[in-house]
Predict the 3D structure of the following.
Amino acid sequence: MPSVRRRSRDWFDDPQIYGWLRTAALRGLGLTAVASDDRPIIGIANTWSELTHCNAHLRQLAEAVRRGVWQTGGLPLEFPVLSPGEFHSRPTAMLYRNLASMDAEEAIRSNPLDAVVLLGGCDKTTPALLMGAASADVPAILVTGGPQLNAHWRGETVGSCTDCRRYQVELRAGRITEADWADLQSNMIRSAGHCMTMGTASTMACLVEALGIAPPGNGAIPAADSRRLQLAESAGRYAVDLANRDVRPSQILTPAAFDNAIRVLHAIGGSTNAVIHLIAIAGRLGIDLELERFDELSRSTPLLVDLKPAGRFLMEDFCYAGGVPALIAEMGQFLDLTTPTVTGRTLGENCAGAQVWNREVIRPLDRPLHPEGGLAVLHGSLAPAGAIIKPAAATPTLLTHRGRAVVFEDHDDLFHRVDDPSLDVRPDDVLVLRRAGPIGGPGMPEWGLLPIPKKLLAAGVRDMVRISDARISGTAYGTVVVHVSPESAAGGALAAVRSGDLIELDVPNRRLDLLVEPQELTRRLATVAKAKSQPDRGYGLLYAQHVLQAEQGCDFDFLCATNARQSRARSGAE
């Protein structure tokens, strides 16, 4: 029995005709008196979509959740949530993450749900669901669809889409043929699920487990593994328990839980995108999660997981090595193991007894891949509000570098000029792309992995320093600086860079500087246009007017808990 009055009773105990009609509507689904016998109603928020191939198997997971809910006396009711997929959404799924979060939030808030199971998978669906659930603050548990099985091609284990990118470079360099490229395409995605490298989807699947909002094992069990269905079934049971105890996301997603997630992010060599998503989720709860916290924890967290794009292995290997529970048990001294989780146990209790079964995949603390974490936060005259680099996936010799800027005004300019034989570019130059940020993209597309000019590829060059206000896919690799803020379209310093300027990257000292005199920088910035023309209608207009910068999570200003409270206070005062 519940320890508190059920939220759903406010709908069905309505003394007016509406309560009667709501029960009649459920009976219209073929249900009997289940709506009036005080059982918890558990929503299943499903981002299933055939336009999002990573999530195309979530109907099967939803059925497993449904079994778990019925087993423990709940009533499962499934509903759809917008499913932005990175492969098909143009210009980027990130443009629609906030819209999907609003869809989830309003669906949860407006319906008679005592708890909700969130089903996500592809990059933006997982943070969107969690952002919406955090804002609604109704008991919630998150289950992701799991990674694809390892892919194999011509005797090599390959991962989407780290190796897609690697072989595309070789195609452009003339090292493989179009026939080879087509053959690789038919082999790359061999099962349901999201990318099986430590890309953004895998990273977020691991981090929600570290946050305590997903059940143990969520991070690494492959989509095709029957244990993924077992996990989903258990989530249905946990959801009923959460409803009975009225345990809300705000009670689980605490500052200590976010610190745990950041530590795990660094230990797994996770995606740069996770920084934006964690900040946005925290902001929905009124937690001010600053970039500096990511860098502070990186300095003292070792990189332990050897996965592509920063390492050698893939998520299937990580699962067999013990997954997130084994990693948490290994690095427990860096974590707060007393944080609560959706299982009713603490994080430490969830992972007690977990063992590492492959020490090449999950390194011991005394033999880390690197003594510091996989990500670093940079500041300087080119990024006053911050920028991100993934040193674990970069070329070590380029982490301290000074070179001439080669500037591309936008993505179209890059596309048309990067392979021009007359382009003035040398191997030690720094490629710069602007107008690719939250406003300039719009939506901050994954354009940060600028292609190396073809004439340099032909000469054997495979990495260069690349800088932009864009994002990169979590599957990408190279010496790539992204999330430069303020973005160029908002009048940031990136807008003032000219080809031939010297740029200095100093990752050990966390610096990114444009080597021009401050007075000259100020003069240039006074002459640059701040933004492209805004859309004149719909969601695009809303986005352009309210999106925040990268260091603030790219959320909408009116959705952040602190800003929303201030807005309501102003409205009340007026």
